[in-house]
Design a protein that fits this description.
Strand content: 25-35%
Bound molecules: (R)-mevalonate
Order of helices and strands: EEEEHEHHHEEEHHHHEEHEE
Radius of gyration: 19 Å
Helix content: 40-55%
Number of helices: 9
Shape: globular
Largest sheet: 8 strands, mixed
Structural class: alpha+beta
Length: 304
């Protein structure tokens, strides 16, 4: 029996601007997906009522990973069990984390010796096939962990940051929101173009302040980034309520993470304010959880 885990991710800065080749900073968090694989009579998933056959409609990511392994090795019977701390469909990279942890677990199980680059690449192919279009950010961060500058996929050092995540619980389609932003940019190319440039400058300035540990200034830059995300129409009343509630409770800065429209926001906090911020987000109608940035990408948890 082999268990592997892989992290979810947040955008500290730069979502949407990165679609236009501008700089963004994404970071792994300590919420992880765990995948256990063990020998079985056929290719199965562990379900609440017992093992079930893998269904391409119900388990598209796992199904597609297994199909990829069929090109690499003789895929014998295996049972795959998934447990995840990462809320699904909320912009925290839950599908990427499950995909990457499954690839690593099957890699060990079948002895296929994939490198981290191979794992990230296969993960991105799986997400692209399932979703139609997928950003390589989620699978890259989930594979390598730590803080990553996008689109160059340059790993920055590791900086321990305390984050409260607020989840609006509202689903939003990344594809739809990205296409709304593209339409806005087409109507106002120079205005939106300059906003994207400014978001990129925020990301680049943000890196310097993260590296010097000046989290007050990082928070200030997150607030400016949030204003610009609102200006391109990816905010929502629910997200704004959580953002302002977190700031009122003492967060150093807060903003949407991911595509927006629903999903999650993040609040950068000092230790002393963490539970206050988490409670305040709850009172404002969100689900909240405390996490920290993480340097750990995909990893084997145990073999028995
Ligand atoms: C979505 O998580 C982040 C976006 O920047 C889209 C992307 O990077 O592909 C909105």
């Amino acid at each position: 029996m082999i268990t592997c885990s892989a992290p979810g991710k947040i955008f500290l800065f730069g979502e949407h601007a990165v679609v236009y080749g501008k700089t963004a900073i994404a970071c792994a968090i300590d919420l992880r997906a765990h995948v256990t694989v063990e020998e079985a009579g056929s290719i199965q998933m562990k379900g609440p009522g017992g093992n079930i056959d893998i269904n391409p409609r119900k388990h598209p990511y796992i199904y597609t990973v297994v199909e990829k392994f069929k090109n690499l090795t003789d895929v014998s019977g295996v049972c795959i069990d998934i447990r995840s701390d990462i809320p699904v469909g909320s912009g925290l990279g839950s599908s990427a984390a499950v995909t990457i942890a499954t690839i690593k677990a099957l890699d060990i199980f079948y002895g296929t010796n994939l490198s981290l680059d191979d794992i990230a690449q296969m993960g991105h192919q799986v997400e692209s096939e399932v979703q139609g279009r997928a950003s390589p950010t989620d699978t890259f961060v989930s594979t390598f962990g730590g803080m990553v500058q996008i689109p160059d996929r340059k790993k920055l050092g590791y900086y321990d940051m305390l984050i409260v995540i607020g989840n609006t619980g509202k689903f939003s389609s990344t594809r739809k929101i990205v296409s709304n932003v593209a339409a806005l940019k087409e109507r106002h190319p120079s205005v939106i173009g300059q906003i994207m440039d400014t978001i990129s400058a925020i990301s680049e300035t943000g890196i310097e302040y993260i590296q010097t540990g000046d989290f007050h200034t990082v928070g200030e830059l997150m607030n400016i980034n949030q204003g610009l995300l609102d200006s391109i129409g990816v905010g929502s009343k629910e997200l704004s309520e959580l953002v302002y509630a977190s700031r009122k409770a003492g967060a150093l800065g807060s903003k949407i993470t991911g595509a927006g429209g629903g999903g999650c926001m993040i609040a950068l906090c000092e230790h002393k304010n963490l539970s206050r911020v988490a409670h305040s987000i709850k009172r404002a109608g969100g689900d909240s959880f405390i996490c920290r940035t993480s340097n750990s990408g995909v990893r084997a948890e145990g073999k028995s």
